[in-house]
Backbone:
């Protein structure tokens, strides 16, 4: 079963194909920002699991694999 960590690992592996030039004016190098956002964006859809603590069921639109696993959420 995929986990939040395997999503991050898969995104990092896919990110190996992307090359970025450094930006000397940035306090955080582009590479570090790229890897941070790669991991965050890959893990973000699974934030919906906190809904279980609030009584949201698995099958609900706000439940796991509901709206956060949609193309609209990915585009936003």
Residues:
């Amino acid at each position: 079963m995929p986990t939040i960590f395997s999503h991050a690992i898969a995104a990092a592996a896919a990110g190996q194909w992307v090359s970025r030039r450094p930006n000397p004016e940035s306090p955080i190098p582009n590479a570090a920002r790229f890897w941070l956002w790669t991991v965050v964006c890959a893990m973000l859809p699974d934030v919906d699991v906190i809904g279980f603590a609030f009584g949201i069921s698995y099958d609900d639109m706000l439940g796991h694999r509901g709206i956060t696993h949609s193309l609209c959420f990915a585009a936003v």
